[in-house]
Each structure stands twice: as C-alpha cells, then as structure tokens.
Write a structure and sequence with these properties.
Structural class of chain A: mainly beta
CATH superfamily of the largest domain in chain A: TolB, C-terminal domain
Largest sheet of chain B: 4 strands, mixed
Helix content of chain B: 40-55%
Largest sheet of chain A: 6 strands, mixed
CATH topology of the largest domain in chain A: Neuraminidase
Distance between the termini of chain B: 41 Å
Order of helices and strands of chain B: HHHEHEHEHE
Number of helices of chain B: 6
Number of helices of chain A: 3
Distance between the termini of chain A: 22 Å
Helix content of chain A: under 10%
CATH class of the largest domain in chain B: Alpha Beta
Shape of chain A: globular
Strand content of chain B: 5-15%
Strand content of chain A: 35-45%
Shape of chain B: globular
Number of strands of chain B: 4
Strand order of the largest sheet of chain B: 1-4-2-3
Number of domains of chain B: 2
Structural class of chain B: alpha+beta
Largest interface: A-B, 34 and 25 residues
CATH class of the largest domain in chain A: Mainly Beta
Radius of gyration of chain B: 21 Å
CATH topology of the largest domain in chain B: 60s Ribosomal Protein L30, Chain: A
Number of strands of chain A: 33
Radius of gyration of chain A: 23 Å
CATH superfamily of the largest domain in chain B: OmpA-like domain
Number of domains of chain A: 2
CATH architecture of the largest domain in chain A: 6 Propeller
Oligomer: heterodimer
C-alpha cells in the first residue's frame, strides 16, 4: 500500500494513514428513518475464514466499530467469521499465528481505538494474512464520531482488498426510491442500508435515479410537473436542474463514462427515441432513428456503445449501437422480453431483466461467449445495478406485495435481502461509484 | 355608456366567475355560472348597463359553458378514459365516438389544449412501461389529428406504471390501469 515502514508503526508493519474529516458534505434532509435490514440467503462456496478480534478500546465509541466491520464482511458472502473469543486484543500485541490457524483462521485482524485530539478517535488496525504468510498490513484512521460507520466500512474495504485482491464496496453508497402512501422519497444510503438520507421528497413519482461517475450528482426522472422530466440533482447543494423537458415524455437518463453527457429518451418526435445531451441541457443529438420504442440506454464503460431496449424486432430485446452513430446490433435472442441492460464495470458482463414463464428475473450474459445465466428466482425482479467492483448486483424485488431491495452476486451464489423495517415500497436501486465527493 | 355602470358590471361578472371557479369540482359541474351570469344583469336597475354586461357575460358564459360541457356526465366529452389490451396500443372500435367527440370539441375550440397521459399495468420494466404508455397516448393523439385536431393543441405524455387507478395484482386491476386519460388545460 505505502512505501516503507511508517514511523507510526514502529516495526515492520506497513501502515496506511487515512483521515476522515468532519461529517460528509452530502447535504440532505435528516429525518427519522427506517433502516434496511439485511438478510443473507446464500453464501459463496469458498469463503475465506477471518478472525476479527475484539478491538481494544471499542468501548470508547457509542457503537461498536468492530460490529460494523464484521457485518460488512459477513454480508459479502466471501468471508466466514471465525470466533475470536471474548478478549480484546491490541493492534500491536504479540500473537501466536499458529494458534489462530488452529482455530481455522486464514487471516487475523487486530485493532486498537485511542482518543485523538479534537474529539476524534484513532483506530490502528493490523491484518495478518496467515494462509499466505505475508508481512502484516496496517492502517490508521483518524475519525470523528459522526463518521464511525464510514470508518468501519473503510476498514472492511481494506481487509476485503488485501484478502481478495479486488476493491471492497462497503464504503460506497446506494440510491433508491421509497414510496409510502402517496409520498415518494429519493434516498441516498450506505451500501449496508444503515444510513438513509432523503435527497428529494415529492408527492409525484420519482424513477430511474442514476449516479454521475464522480458520485456528486444524481440524474432522475420526476413527475412533479405531471409528466416525466429529467433532472440532475447535486447532492452537495441540493440544487435541482432540468436536463430535458421537451414536449412529450423525457426519461431514462444514463451518464456517459466521462460524466459530461447523458443519454436520454425523448418522445418529442413521436416514438420513444434515444438522444445524448450535455448535462446543462445543451447539445441535443439524436442517437437512434426508428419508429419503434428505443429506451433504457446505457453506455458501455469504454463509452463506445450505447446498449438499449427496443421492440423493433416485434418484442422488447436488447440492442447496442455505436455511440458515434451507425447500425444497431441485436444482443439478446432468447425469449420474448429482455429489457434494462446494465453493463458490469469491466464491460464484460451485461445484467438485464428477462421474462421467463411470466416471471421477471435478473439475468446475466457474458458478452464474449453470449452465455446466459438467470440469477434470481422470484417473480418480480427488476432494475438491476452493478456494484462498482462488479461482484454484486442490487435489484428491486417484491415480497408479499411490497417492494424490497435484494442483491445477488454476479455468479449467482450469494443472495441478500435488504428490507425496510417500516412500511413503504422500496424500488429503483442504483449503486454509486467508488468515487466519493 | 356610463363609467360607473361598467365598473359595476365587471364586479358582478367577477363575482359570477369566482362563484363558478369555486364550484368546479368533479362532482359539481360549472352549472352555477350559467345560472348566475344571466341573472346578474337582471338585478341591475340601469338599462344602459345591461348591454355591456351581456356582451361580456355571453363570452364568459360560452367558455364556462364549454368547461361545464366537458364535465357533464351526460355529455360524451366527460368520457376521458381509453382502455387497452395487454401489451397493445390499438384503440378499440368502441372508443370511436369518444375520440370523435373530443376531436370535434378541439377543432371547434382551438384555444383548448389537451394533455393525454398514457398508462400501463405494473408488470415489467418501469422505463419500458413508460415507453408503452407513451404509445397509448400517441395512439389517441394520432386518432385526434386524423380527425383534424391541430398538433399544437395536444401533448401526449406517459405516466408508465407509476399512476395506477387500481393497486391490485389481478387482471381486473391491470386492465383498469392500461389506459389513456384525457385532461384539458386546468384539469391537471
């Protein structure tokens, strides 16, 4: 992570120092909110056994930091938590790794929490990769009490990345819409569903939230003017600007990878057609030219293609067209209803919704081999959205007539339900990027 | 014409208009306006005041009468819902008279604007349903244009599956939600 020993570490531990400054700048209205509880309904076949010893000094905090880290890692389905025993262990304690190995741990995390100047805390964490016998990795976080959960998510990200080689997504955010009675709220939440904040409330529907690549803005469709209009909403200021308000319907915003443009669907010339437009509403350019429905555009991560849903062949199927212009090619062929294309961050996999025997199911296609796998088995699954590391897909599902969010690993092995504790339909999830403004 | 009497007649007219506005709920058509406006000049002592009031009054009466006509349950123009089959945007023959009544009204009253909101049932993708709802709205728009209505008078939009009339998950609810709704300016 960092070059050479850190003076703070003393010995041969490589430390990375992070500072979480005061509360995040996300400007949102705070209300009492029902949190999402998470229930894991499946687990990976080869989970990495990890022991996370009780943190020394965790009692200083209003909530246990250790609990946040453990819950994150367990939820991923990639780790199996080994019982660490009841004793707190200092980060720099001498440990007998063979003893931990006998307990079944392939990795061991130790941490100490200390008071830091300015009503802050410092957490020092050391991670031993027992199985691979690497030199231990260390990190230090200085944080204010208000960012305790965020700190826990970042520790979990650190452990995840060290042990799997891929970035963790515990400190990323999700957006979703909650409908309660006739009220609609656009929420921004931590990936664990434990920190919901309201970005927008309306008495009219809100759909299709989409994160800007830098994580600072959400594009969405609001019906507040009695018709669908596309807005971009700054999370830092709460400012809402109109991107597309043409005669007819304006919908399905999708950001270009550079964050400068949006692909949108307009009906100003009759049928639903795909256009690109600059974020300030200028530079409108038509992309598709059909007399049929073309909607749900999504840029490929390299920006070369726009994937979209069209019924030009008689039933809704997924196509892709070069962003620069040119002929569209059909991507899905099986079945009579394949919609909502969403590309994995590496561009290799496409998640979408397929209808199979009247059931709407989250499906993935390996774009190179065109091999298809249905990932979910309930009847009303829609709106898939990839986590920024590509490992997990969050989607909208329905249980007992109520909208809930669920997540499935892109290999189909790990399934989670994220259910709101109070009433209300939860829908339209969108997983934010790694980037945090 | 005496300036004072003109003022009075405008005041009377305004009152009549306000009375009309406050009572134009869906259950109470704008009938009071039709009743009150003719009676206002009758209450005037000055014969000279009757003429201007009547001129202005007749204009307003016509407009208010039109609005009342749109809501009068016995008038075909009060019919505003066009239902569709599953995955279809074909207007059924049974709606021919509804469409032609609105076409006649719009061609005769080019100042009136119509918003057509297309809707779908809740099954499937929200955005794809938004596009399907748009088709249902466009279908009604095209039918009206074939009958001579100016495009500038009509806006076809979609609410997709977002504004169901019924929230059940049975076919009866789905059928009730697959519709286009016609709304005149001031009604949305």
């Amino acid at each position: 992570m960092t070059g050479g020993p850190n003076p703070l570490s003393g010995k041969d531990v490589m430390f990375k120092v992070f500072r979480l400054l005061a509360a995040a700048t996300l400007l949102v209205t705070q209300f009492a909110h029902a949190q999402l509880t998470i229930e894991i309904t499946g687990a990976g076949a080869n989970r990495i056994p990890v022991a996370i010893a009780n943190f020394a000094g965790d009692g200083l905090l209003p909530q246990t930091l250790n609990g946040v880290v453990r819950a994150d890692l367990e939820r991923s389905g990639l780790f199996k938590l080994v019982d660490p025993g009841p004793t707190a262990v200092q980060e720099n304690a001498a440990v007998d790794l063979n003893q931990w190995k006998e307990r079944g741990a392939d990795a061991l995390a130790l941490a100490s929490i200390l008071p830091a100047p300015g009503n802050r805390y410092e957490v020092r964490m050391r991670l031993y990769d027992i199985a691979r016998q690497n030199k231990p990795d260390g990190m230090i976080f200085v944080f204010a009490p208000t960012t305790m959960r965020e700190t826990g998510h970042r520790i979990a990200d650190f452990i995840h990345e060290k042990l799997t080689g891929e970035k963790g997504i515990y400190s990323t955010r999700i957006a979703y819409v909650v409908k309660t009675g006739s009220r609609f709220e656009l929420k921004v939440d931590d990936a664990d569903g434990q920190n919901p904040r309201t970005a927008l409330r309306s008495t009219e529907p809100i759909i299709s939230p989409a994160w800007s690549p830098d994580g600072s803005r959400l594009a969405y469709v609001s019906f507040q003017a009695k018709k669908p209009i596309i807005y971009v909403h700054s999370l830092a200021t709460g400012a809402q600007t109109v991107v597309a308000n043409f005669k007819g319907s304006n919908s399905a915003p999708a950001w270009s990878p550079d964050g400068k443009k949006l692909a949108v669907v307009l009906t100003k010339d009759g049928s639903s057609q795909i256009y690109t437009v600059n974020v300030d509403g200028s530079g409108l350019t038509r992309v598709t030219s059909s007399s049929t429905i073309d909607t749900e555009p999504q840029f490929s991560p390299d920006g070369q293609y726009i994937y979209f849903t069209s019924d030009r062949g008689g039933s809704p199927q997924i196509y892709r067209a070069p962003t620069a212009g040119g002929n569209a090619e059909r991507v899905t062929f099986d079945g009579s209803y394949n919609v909502t294309p969403r590309l994995s961050p590496d561009g290799k996999t496409m998640a979408y919704v397929s209808r199979n025997g009247g059931r709407f199911q989250i499906t993935v296609m390996d774009l190179a081999s065109r091999q298809v796998q249905i990932l979910t088995d309930s009847a009303r699954d829609e709106s898939p959205s990839f986590a920024p590391n590509g490992r997990t897909i969050i989607y909208a599902s329905e249980i007992g007539g109520r909208g809930v969010l669920s997540a499935v690993s892109s290999d189909g092995r790990v399934k989670q339900k994220l259910s709101g504790q109070a009433g209300g339909d939860v829908r339209e999830p969108a997983w934010g990027p790694f980037n945090q403004p | 014409m005496h300036p004072t009497t003109v003022k009075i007649s405008i005041a009377a007219l305004t009152l009549a208009l306000l009375a009309g506005c406050s009572s134009t709920g869906p259950e109470q058509p704008a009938a009071p306006v039709e009743n009150k406006t003719p009676s206002a000049p009758a209450g005037n002592a000055s014969g000279a005041a009757v003429a201007p009031t009547n001129v202005a009054g007749r204009q307003m009466t016509a407009e208010e009468a039109l609005l009342a006509q749109l809501k009068d349950p016995s008038n075909p123009l009060s019919k505003r819902l066009v239902y569709f089959d599953y995955d279809s945007y074909v207007i059924k023959d049974s709606y021919a008279s509804l469409i032609s009544a609105h076409a006649k009204f719009l061609t005769a009253n080019p100042k009136f604007k119509l918003l057509i909101q297309g809707n779908t049932d809740e099954r499937g993708s929200r955005e794809y349903n938004l596009a399907l709802g748009q088709r249902r709205a466009e279908a009604v728009k095209r039918a009206l244009m074939v009958l001579g209505v100016q495009e500038a008078q009509i806006e076809a939009v979609s609410l997709g599956e977002e504004k169901p009339r019924m929230t059940g998950t049975d076919e009866a609810s789905y059928a009730e939600n697959r519709r286009s709704e016609l709304l005149y300016s001031g009604e949305y």
